[in-house]
Specification:
By secondary structure, the chain is α/β, with parallel strands linked by helices. It contains nine helices and 14 strands. The protein starts with a strand and ends in a 6-residue tail after the last helix.
């Protein structure tokens, strides 16, 4: 089996590249445009794995993904713009990369009869209440950012390509990622909070959001879910929620405080903070034999350890 990973040098991809066993794959093709210059994601890759690097942008009309694929190939499509707050300022770019880029990758998969793992987001649920599942109707899905809208549009496009043209794929709706990797980013809630705490910056939290629940995903579980799809041939054209925990901001900050005792939180009021608290159900993927093993406490400790000299000044042990 051959694997092609788009956006392979990012937060998720850089950890995925380190997870393969020597006899698992014939070849791993790394596709990345180096837009974020994460050259460090190529450091110390397992020498037993046959890696190939292709510097390319999947949205570039001059780039042809098809020659890299065949019927024994699986594509893990991670290439995306993932910063939801910033997506409001670059809506056209987000649509181009997240929606049209996914369509381009899916078209190549169709022509080569390759299989596709598409990483979407639980942000497609948007303004929800109570427990949400993959069975939510189109009317119940209310994405609140151009980022989430582009992911939902890509999901629907894949569903159509699967039902009408025979594309084989699986869609994973990942919760907000936390945890370490060599290509990690710090724009999402948990990682951003840990960064701020380690460097003595106050954590600014909307007062109304303190006890609202949101879905989060340990990066370890994210990688294990992708590996589960590979080993179990989970290409049934269905959507799966992948969520380690549904957590409140209070639970997250209290976990960080156990590592950084002098953590400072500033509660602010916001007129636009009107989302309801919701829980994302994960039972569908669990029914496929997948078990979640991630831990916010362990991931927090690992991340703080990366900044140990700075964290010690904040009271960390």
């Amino acid at each position: 089996m051959k694997l092609v990973v788009t956006g392979a040098l990012g937060h998720i991809g850089s950890r995925l590249l380190q997870s393969f066993q020597p006899d698992q794959l014939q070849e791993v093709v790394i596709v990345d445009n180096f837009h974020t210059q994460r050259y460090c994601s190529l450091y110390n890759l397992p020498p037993e794995i046959n890696y190939r690097l292709v510097e390319a942008d999947v949205t570039d009309p001059d780039f042809n993904l098809l020659p890299l694929l065949d019927k024994n190939t699986i594509v893990v499509h991670l290439a995306a713009i993932t910063n939801a707050p910033a997506s409001f300022q670059i809506q056209e770019e987000v649509e181009r990369v997240n929606f049209r880029g996914t369509q381009s990758v899916a078209e190549a998969c169709l022509r080569a009869r390759a299989r596709l793992i598409f990483v979407s987001t639980t942000s497609v649920y948007g303004v929800s209440d109570g427990v949400v599942t993959e069975e939510c109707s189109d009317e119940e899905l209310k994405p609140q950012s151009p980022y989430a809208e582009s992911k939902l549009a890509a999901e629907r496009s894949l569903q159509k390509m699967g039902s009408e043209r025979g594309l084989r794929f699986v869609t994973f709706r990942f919760g907000t990622i936390y945890g370490t990797s060599i290509g990690m980013r710090f724009h999402t809630a948990v990682n951003k909070f840990i960064w701020q705490a380690c460097f003595g910056e106050p954590l600014t939290v909307w007062r109304t959001a303190l006890d609202q629940q949101r879905p989060y995903l340990d990066l370890t579980d994210a990688i294990r879910a992708i590996q589960h799809a590979l080993t179990q041939n989970l290409f049934d054209n269905r959507i799966y929620n992948v969520v380690t925990d549904n957590l409140t901001v209070r639970q997250i900050t209290e976990t960080i405080r156990r590592e950084i005792p002098d953590l400072e939180i500033r509660l602010v009021d916001s007129a636009i903070m009107n989302q309801l608290s919701y829980i994302v159900d994960r039972s569908r993927i669990e029914s496929k034999g997948f078990t979640f093993r991630g831990s916010l406490a362990d991931a927090t400790r690992d991340t703080v350890t990366l900044f140990r000299p700075f964290a010690m000044r904040r009271g960390a042990q």
